Fold:
Amino acid sequence: MFVYKSNEIVIMCCAFSWTGSLYSKPATDATQNMMNPSVTFDAGVLTLTFQRARNTGDDNDWTFTDSESGCYYFIFPVGGGPHMGNDFFQHSATPIISQQKICISK
Structure:
């Protein structure tokens, strides 16, 4: 997702991305299986909500199951980063990693 604000015009875009290493720039996933995306900005808080199947059949997606192996640590980006057009760069602050694995249940 990226947000661009200029002269009170806000452009928000959502797309699934993935990366194969810790510090490489994420690539846009060729199979976009995000459903019902919604982006809001209210009182200084940017919120993105969406739906996605727990198992998309895409080899680049994580599969969420009810077993421990289907639970993952999540990364929560904070701060923003510079961008140029549709290109974006490293966040200005280190993302927060969940202290425990998170399970996406039915």
Observations:
- Residues 2-103 form one domain.
